[in-house]
Amino acid sequence: MSEERKSLNFIEQIIEEDLSNGMSKEALRFRFPPEPNGYLHIGHTKAIGISFGLGEKYEAPVNLRFDDTNPAKEEQEYVDAIKKDVAWLGYTWDKELFSSDYFQQLYDWAILLIKEGKAYVDSQSSEAMAEQKGRPTQAGVDGPFRNRTVEENLDLFERMKQGEFEEGEHILRAKIDMQHPNMLMRDPIIYRVLKKHHHRTANDWCIYPMYDWTHGESDYLEQISHSLCSLEFKPHRELYDWFLDQVVVEEKLRPKQREFARLNLSYTIMSKRKLLKLVEDGVVNGWDDPRMPTISGLRRRGYTPASIRKFVETVGVAKRENVIDVSLLEFCIREDLNKTAPRVMAVLNPVKVVITNYPEDKVEWLDAENNQEDASAGFRKVPFSREIFIEKDDFKEEAGNKFFRLKLGGEVRLKNAYIIKAESVVKDAHGEVIEIHCTYSEDTAKRVKATLHWVSIEHALKAEVREYDRLFNDEAPDSHQDKDFMEFINPNSLKHITAFVEPSLKEAQIGDRFQFQRLGYFNVDDDSTAEHLVFNKTVGLRDSWAKAQPKPQQNNAPKKQNMPKRKAIDVIQQLGKKYTNLPDAKQEKVKAEILKLAKQVSYDELAPLFNTAVKKVGTRIAVTLVLGVLLENGQAKNEEIDAFITKALEDKNALLVQFAQGL
């Protein structure tokens, strides 16, 4: 196998195999299909990067298709925002399309299904339908309207379309198999009545197709070769294929659905519903608040397209869910801005320095390097005068040998300027130092241990700095079964600071990015004006969050203190691997440990393990035990859970079946 072949991710391997089996390269076509019911967030960048990245790799077209089948939640505002975000990331789509483009064709196909006896109008209540659909361990039963005549179904469906019925009175269902082990195949809904205004079709329709019916047929109409989606759609693949079976013709390409792991980020939530709650409750100032994980929020905070694309590339394409530490995203923007951001001086917490032996009316314009990482960046002029500001934290009256900044009797270098020595201080009535009196030396070759940034008071511009921190102070804020994610809001996620910046920033434009030397990376906010400069802190020069976390208590095993704490789900997986090889007494002990750890596991962490291979029965037993704890603590059953239980009950391992029966 060649080195190039080894480097392919599993999706690329699928495509290469299809090409080697006769698919024409010209037949390749991909799509990114967002629902326009919210702003895109950092999690979507993976799906964007995969589809558009494949388009770039294979020189194949990529469609931007909006799956707009739910007018109750979709708006033109979201369509516009999504287009802006994808373009800002640097991607170009071939066609801009909407699922609503296909409403008539989808309706015509639904009529065809009715005529072929493969769809019927159901008039039960939603509660009755849920009951007759059964459970994973119990087959469903045919509903009372399943055997309506073709003529009656056509009449009712037409009247649904004409608006004769209210929402919930009737639905159209596919007629598949009410005893099917995959609950998604038990006569899924195809159409429902929704008397809502649609952002594109206005009031032309009052029946709307369901996502599962629309998605695959839209792929087929667009001749998408590979329909890529996240892992939660894996159980839907069987239904995706069944729907295609009803409409495909031999001479046209049939789309292939394949799934990849979503991008999950620590200290972040990815649910559009929960992000909308943050906006509606005023926790943040809109979808583009720089604390939000939305692409528009990251853009406003100062993130670059290159840094986000690098982040997605580093994370890679995986088949199993995992959580990426947000510090990796911060590393990517820090690395990018280090190469590109001009260096400037700003003081965020000022204290006045008077250089007593410098002439009162003298001003020097000194050369300052714009970016030592970029030889072509050149130099700028910064003014130096008798009175300057430095950071208050950069001075102590008395300090030990490990404090290398300014202290009484000590010397430091001023960046791009002279060496100063602190001689005395002036204090206010509360004993706070308000002035530091220094002398300067023109002998700049002298060796000193510290270099401080500064600004000339006479020339400094006053600016507002918005210093952002993580919006949540918990690593997984929406993973707690007994707590609302809102309880983990970081009350110190935004601080407003009055700062002083060097005069070269007077002409700074919205979106410009800078390194405030020794402080971090900042960009000019959308609210900034010529009269009132506003900067957002993008990221610090180094990861300060890790240092701020409480240190583990001392114990008698110092080596273990340096080991990162393993996540509960990872420990459970490890315990499960050898479960079936253990003696009975040991199994009981491990079982108790798994049940204890299960209290720290979220559903999102557990769900990816539902697809564990049959041969890994120990892991599946561990998953069953954890699932029992989640269900006991209020986790509602869903189709994913039902499918897992069904599969477990059919297993040859008696212990797994026993535990599954308890669910």
Automatic annotation (TrEMBL):
<keyword id="KW-0067">ATP-binding</keyword>
<comment type="similarity">
    <text>Belongs to the class-I aminoacyl-tRNA synthetase family.</text>
</comment>
<dbReference type="InterPro" id="IPR001412">
    <property type="entry name" value="aa-tRNA-synth_I_CS"/>
</dbReference>
<feature type="region of interest" description="Disordered">
    <location>
        <begin position="545"/>
        <end position="566"/>
    </location>
</feature>
<keyword id="KW-0648">Protein biosynthesis</keyword>
<dbReference type="GO" id="GO:0005524">
    <property type="term" value="F:ATP binding"/>
</dbReference>
<dbReference type="Pfam" id="PF03950">
    <property type="entry name" value="tRNA-synt_1c_C"/>
</dbReference>
<dbReference type="Pfam" id="PF20974">
    <property type="entry name" value="tRNA-synt_1c_C2"/>
</dbReference>
<dbReference type="InterPro" id="IPR011035">
    <property type="entry name" value="Ribosomal_bL25/Gln-tRNA_synth"/>
</dbReference>
<dbReference type="InterPro" id="IPR020059">
    <property type="entry name" value="Glu/Gln-tRNA-synth_Ib_codon-bd"/>
</dbReference>
<dbReference type="InterPro" id="IPR049437">
    <property type="entry name" value="tRNA-synt_1c_C2"/>
</dbReference>
<keyword id="KW-0547">Nucleotide-binding</keyword>
<feature type="domain" description="Glutamyl/glutaminyl-tRNA synthetase class Ib anti-codon binding">
    <location>
        <begin position="341"/>
        <end position="440"/>
    </location>
</feature>
<dbReference type="InterPro" id="IPR020061">
    <property type="entry name" value="Glu_tRNA_lig_a-bdl"/>
</dbReference>
<dbReference type="GO" id="GO:0004819">
    <property type="term" value="F:glutamine-tRNA ligase activity"/>
</dbReference>
<feature type="domain" description="Glutamyl/glutaminyl-tRNA synthetase class Ib catalytic">
    <location>
        <begin position="28"/>
        <end position="338"/>
    </location>
</feature>
<dbReference type="Pfam" id="PF00749">
    <property type="entry name" value="tRNA-synt_1c"/>
</dbReference>
<dbReference type="InterPro" id="IPR014729">
    <property type="entry name" value="Rossmann-like_a/b/a_fold"/>
</dbReference>
<keyword id="KW-0030">Aminoacyl-tRNA synthetase</keyword>
<dbReference type="GO" id="GO:0006425">
    <property type="term" value="P:glutaminyl-tRNA aminoacylation"/>
</dbReference>
<protein>
    <recommendedName>
        <fullName>Glutamine--tRNA ligase</fullName>
        <ecNumber>6.1.1.18</ecNumber>
    </recommendedName>
</protein>
<dbReference type="InterPro" id="IPR020058">
    <property type="entry name" value="Glu/Gln-tRNA-synth_Ib_cat-dom"/>
</dbReference>
<dbReference type="InterPro" id="IPR004514">
    <property type="entry name" value="Gln-tRNA-synth"/>
</dbReference>
<dbReference type="InterPro" id="IPR050132">
    <property type="entry name" value="Gln/Glu-tRNA_Ligase"/>
</dbReference>
<keyword id="KW-0963">Cytoplasm</keyword>
<keyword id="KW-0436">Ligase</keyword>
<dbReference type="InterPro" id="IPR020056">
    <property type="entry name" value="Rbsml_bL25/Gln-tRNA_synth_N"/>
</dbReference>
<feature type="domain" description="tRNA synthetases class I (E and Q) anti-codon binding">
    <location>
        <begin position="451"/>
        <end position="525"/>
    </location>
</feature>
<dbReference type="GO" id="GO:0005829">
    <property type="term" value="C:cytosol"/>
</dbReference>
